[in-house]
């Protein structure tokens, strides 16, 4: 995949990795195996064994006395260290690196990678700032979606689809675009979204709705192409809903959400689990509609509030160069 090379991608939050358990990840058309050893060190290798191509992620970790671990191939139990070296049976001699490790950038609990490409844009510091000031609630909505990354990004910056895709969940009556600030690969969108009053039945199904006011005053902060951040504020809590997007291959993308909060009321602590469930439903609904679209259909209709989608298209076409900035709206 040539598009978007040089962007940083958040592969995982450390809480998504159990010690000495293998995780398969895909990025920019390549598959990798990711693992964390007993010392908390995270490593990644290409997922294909250099012997006969078995998926290393289907193997297991072999723990060493010093806390390190190596990967055992599920086919012939060849053990590969974090550099991709192994010992051929009967030789008692370690080979040179046979598979090139994926370079990772570890920032505390955040595991980033440029996918082996030269960095073109920096990793923003905002996640480190959020992690310092807010309580981590958890990870939600982690799934692969059978759609290309452009379609995923257009959906995530489509401020009108609340009325369709999420109509039963939020019952938003209309969307008012108050302001869109275009800062090249960084943008802010400020929306006002009046909602119907949720029924008691809806609240019982999703207690997280208690944290949502009659009018959703939304501040969306966007970092092209890898992250969207929803800043939420009400009497119960301050919320940071951090969406991450990854191009797995040309027709497959992954999304997951990290949730942080600052409680203003004891009730906020009681609904943390429900907030995770609520956002998981949101991602599930987005994934469902994205799997049922024809992405190459010519767009013959323009709606109001498509400024975020236009921002995505401009940056996708010009990346890594910054598209000519649109006047803030």
TrEMBL record:
Work out whether the entry's keyword set contains Lyase. no
Rieske domain residues are 9-113
Which Gene Ontology terms cover its molecular function?
Answer: 2 iron, 2 sulfur cluster binding; metal ion binding; monooxygenase activity; oxidoreductase activity, acting on paired donors, with incorporation or reduction of molecular oxygen
InterPro entries, per the entry: Cholesterol_7-desaturase, Rieske_2Fe-2S, Rieske_2Fe-2S_sf
Keywords recorded for this protein, A-Z: 2Fe-2S, Iron, Iron-sulfur, Metal-binding
PANTHER family, sorted? 3-CHLOROBENZOATE-3,4-DIOXYGENASE, IRON-SULFUR DOMAIN CONTAINING PROTEIN
User: What's the protein name?
Assistant: Rieske 2Fe-2S domain-containing protein
Q: Which organism is it from?
A: Aetokthonos hydrillicola Thurmond2011
Q: What is the lineage of its organism?
A: Bacteria, Bacillati, Cyanobacteriota, Cyanophyceae, Nostocales
